[in-house]
Amino acid sequence: MIDAVAAALGKATGALRDAEDRPSQRDMAEAVAEAISERHHLIVQAGTGTGKSLAYMVPALALGARVVVSTATKALQDQLATRDLPALVESLGVPFEFAVLKGRSNYACRQRVRELRSGGDQLSLEPALFDAGTGAPTGAGAPGAPAAGSAWSDAGLGALGREVKRLAAWAENAATSGDRAELDFEPSDLAWAQVSVTYRDCPGAGRCPSGADCFAERAREAASLADVVVVNTHLYVTSLVSEGELLSDHDVVVFDEAHELEDIATASLGVELGGGRFASVGRMCRALLDDPAAALAVEECAGIFADVTGAWSGQAIPRPLEAGVADRMTMIRERLAHLGAELRRASRSPSGETAGGGALPQTASGGSPAASSARFSRAEQALGHLQSDFEALLGASVDDVAWVEDTPHGPLARLAPLDVGARLSELMWSKQDAPTAILTSATIPPRMAERVGLSTGTFDQRDVGSPFAYDEQALLYCPLHLPDPRDPAFEGAMHDELVALIEAARGRTLALFTSWRAMRLAATEVSRRVEWEVLTQSDLPKPALVARFASRETSCLFATMGFWQGVDVPGSSLSLVTIDRIPFSRPDDPLLLARRAKAGKGAFELIDLPRAAAMLAQGTGRLIRSRSDRGVVAVLDTRLARARYRWALIGALPPMRRTRHLREVEAFLAGTRNVAEPAGKPAQ
């Protein structure tokens, strides 16, 4: 078996353009083959450059296993789908089919697009689609709004409406898969919401007039027939508990970027609920009722829920609820139940049949009976999920943590398990027919097996190292002259340092930030002071953005946490990675506060430090992607060189030479540049 896997791996790697002999890759492939054959789980730390995707895919395919690859980021998911797996198909010589499967909200919904095109209730309920300059009403039949069944003209459309029209035209193109990642522009969340649905409000292919040519259903059908399915970890964990997103049976699941599994599972197994859900469901139902009073009452719950939860912003939700708060929550529950009854009544035909099974009354929604049936089904689905999440939040047990986050869209109530390992054990590890799991990352946090619920004796753990000579290829820079990141003077000084570093690198920089605010501020400040093009995470969808950054050799890319991992840009386009701060979790995060309380005195070492070290190592790992790469990692947080815990962080990083002097960085970067360099910023 080992010989067969080694031969297959040699064939696959030998066909690569930049083929390299990587002993760590062979070691990992052998460990994966043993795990699959002996049916035990495997945790494997594989340093940057190991070539993890081949190391787990080749043995799985050679042994005839059906595989689901679960990634923490969509960036890695797209990389596997567009680069790694197609190359493997070509080089391996073993025929296999692969597919990518994402959550429903990542695909355009053809039924929503057809409803928009017909000018039905969706348009009448979204006045922001139209030009409000005239002050005229924008409901169906109003000036600027298309009449039902009419063509959708540009007349009267506002900026959002024009964006939605562009998305609709793209979704109707026969060549598209409907996947948002294929767009050549980044749509606003509000525009995308007009042409998509989530699993919460999708009635399913059997109850939808457009079910036969649904993008999401096509993707699921392709996935059910494929030998390899690529998903994101949120979808995989959701599929364990949600009938709406189930994956077909598989022999092996690979959790790539496995250091994220605990956090993603925590979010996936919990609940998120904001006032917007009440408003959205109320609007959806209002168009279907002759008497909209029950729907309007639920829409009013958006403000009530926001008022109640806003008082707990940044805090755990108290237990038990105060009498006045409990009364308002009871009122919300009763309004949801009443709306459900009204919706069921309206969906019944004169003969008593439901909208899904017979003729429909003429409702405010208009349109064909099939289209009306789809809208009823979608509304019932959305309302049912809202009721379920609301009850879960109110019924939180001692094993759950419920809290409220402050977001740009208002307070968001969240519920999550305190111990996600116990839940994963129940849903996956302890099951008789559980697939063999391969958990791999460039950095495996301490006690990972325990934290995700793997019990002793059910798994093996390996560290296969990295093939790169980091002491020669990379330099780690921490500028001690900068203020502490908690000092108000830090931001300005950090921007000055960024400018100096980018000039030394002549562009060619991936600048990573721990917050959107810090990224936007730095991009604005730095772009006006350097001659090199500065791209930001907001400019394009991730695959297109990374491709543009890689193709424009002297460009810079400023990004947040989603780009700290799963981004692979080998060669001279990336010679400098900067990190603004050590990525510690917020000290006031209610979920982590509860976990710290449970951990006791050692909480910082057990919870906070391993998380920060793993993420810092991931960000650092964006730099060296091949044996010919050279460059600098600049961590602009002086705690890396001064704090008592610094060696725990440094020990998690590749073994690079270290410096605190900018002149050494400038000399090192001068040796990485080509003699002939492209121009800086493109012409405006």
Written overview of the protein:
Helices cover 44% and strands 12% of the residues. It is an alpha/beta fold and 684 residues long. The protein folds into three domains: 2-92 and 221-269 and 418-465, P-loop containing nucleotide triphosphate hydrolases (Rossmann fold, 3-Layer(aba) Sandwich); 273-414, no CATH class; 470-670, Rossmann fold. It has a seven-stranded parallel sheet, sandwiched between helices. Helix 21 links the parallel strand 13 (534-536) and strand 14 (556-559). Helix 12 (275-286) runs antiparallel to helix 13 and helix 13 runs antiparallel to helix 14 (323-346). The longest helix has 26 residues, at 369-394. It is globular and about 75 Å long.
Number of DSSP E strands: 17
**pLDDT < 50 stretches:** 120-128, 130-151, 349-367, 674-678
> How many domains is the backbone divided into?
3
Biggest sheet, strands in spatial order? Answer: 3-4-2-5-9-1-10
By CATH reckoning, the class of the largest domain would read Alpha Beta
Fold-level CATH name of the largest domain: Rossmann fold
CATH architectural arrangement of the largest domain: 3-Layer(aba) Sandwich
Taken as a percent bin, the fraction of beta residues is: 5-15%
> Biggest sheet: strands, sense, closure?
7 strands, parallel
So, the CATH homologous superfamily of the largest domain? P-loop containing nucleotide triphosphate hydrolases
Shape: globular
The average pLDDT value, as a whole number, equals 85
Alpha-beta classification? alpha/beta
Q: State the helical fraction.
A: 40-55%
Rg: 27 Å
Distance between the ends: 58 Å
User: Total number of helical segments?
Assistant: 26
